[in-house]
């Protein structure tokens, strides 16, 4: 029986949503085609007819994960708000629908260039979003890179350790460090403005 365009689009969305969740939970290498098909409630044939290979599915699922993650934090009004929502116990514990950069970063060096290119795009998108939230006087790509690295590193470490109290402290310490950076930048900005007015 021929599948309609609408049904094919629905199937594709189901595959992408399931694959994006599984890849973030178990890693791209840790998920087989059987699990991907089962998560979508489809056959291998349906999966391969949509994407052709697991590698191409992984590339598309990475973009899907990036889009959904960005939408969840898209209404953050400040870096403080973004950080407060990113470095949470809930985000740490729900890896399957969280940040794709933190979930897959450690395994990317072992994958093909096409998938790494998509991952690099995800990193650039995250840095660009953070750069747009930086306070005046701190709006540089380097500052955004440092903030992104701090957040991703803290979330990765918080998930990796087996001590819940230490995990919570890692998240809290990173939030404090990023907030301190904001305050220092704001103070420096006020100081330079004041000195400029005195000249």
Report on this structure.
It is a single chain. The protein has helices at residues 5-26, 33-40, 44-51, 54-73, 79-86, 89-93, 100-104, 113-131, 141-160, 164-198. With 199 residues, it is mainly α. The chain starts with a helix and ends with a helix.
List keywords for this structure.
75% helix, 199 residues, mainly alpha
Question: Which helices and strands, and how do they pair?
Answer:
Blueprint (H helix, E strand, L loop, with lengths): L4 H22 L6 H8 L3 H8 L2 H20 L5 H8 L2 H5 L6 H5 L8 H19 L9 H20 L3 H35 L1
Helix pairs in contact: 1-2, 1-4, 4-8, 8-9, 9-10
Summarize the structure.
This protein has 199 residues and is mainly alpha-helical.
Query: How many strands, what sense, and barrel or not for the largest sheet?
Result: none
Number of helices, where a helix is a run of at least 4 consecutive DSSP H or I residues:
10
Alpha carbon gyration radius:
20 Å
Strand content: under 5%
The overall pLDDT, averaged over residues, is: 85
Instruction: Tell me the number of strands.
Output: 0
SSE string: HHHHHHHHHH
| Fraction of residues in H or I helices | over 70%
Poorly predicted parts: 184-199
Cα shape:
elongated
Q: Termini separation (Å)?
A: 80 Å
Structural class: mainly alpha
InterPro entries: Homeodomain-like_sf (IPR009057), HTH_TetR (IPR001647), Tet_transcr_reg_TetR-rel_C_sf (IPR036271)
Protein name: TetR family transcriptional regulator
Keywords: DNA-binding, Transcription, Transcription regulation
Pfam families: TetR_N (PF00440)
